[in-house]
Amino acid sequence: MIKEIRRGNARAIAKAISLVENDSAAAQRLMRQVFAWRKDAVVLGITGAPGTGKSTLVDQLIGRLRAAGRKIGIVAVDPSSPFSGGAILGDRIRMMRHSVDADVFIRSMATRGHLGGLAKATGEAIAILEAAGKDYILVETVGVGQDEVEVVKLADVVLVVLTPDAGDEIQAFKAGIMEIADIFVINKADHPGADKMERQLRAMLDLGLPDKDKPSVIKTVATKGQGTDGMLSEVDRLMEKRDRRLQEIRRKRLLAWMLRDVIREKIDQLISRDIPDSVFEEYVDQIYHRRTDPYTVADRLISRLKEKG
Amino acid sequence: MIKEIRRGNARAIAKAISLVENDSAAAQRLMRQVFAWRKDAVVLGITGAPGTGKSTLVDQLIGRLRAAGRKIGIVAVDPSSPFSGGAILGDRIRMMRHSVDADVFIRSMATRGHLGGLAKATGEAIAILEAAGKDYILVETVGVGQDEVEVVKLADVVLVVLTPDAGDEIQAFKAGIMEIADIFVINKADHPGADKMERQLRAMLDLGLPDKDKPSVIKTVATKGQGTDGMLSEVDRLMEKRDRRLQEIRRKRLLAWMLRDVIREKIDQLISRDIPDSVFEEYVDQIYHRRTDPYTVADRLISRLKEKG
Question: How near does any CA of chain A get to the CA of B67, in Å?
Answer without folding.
Answer: 31
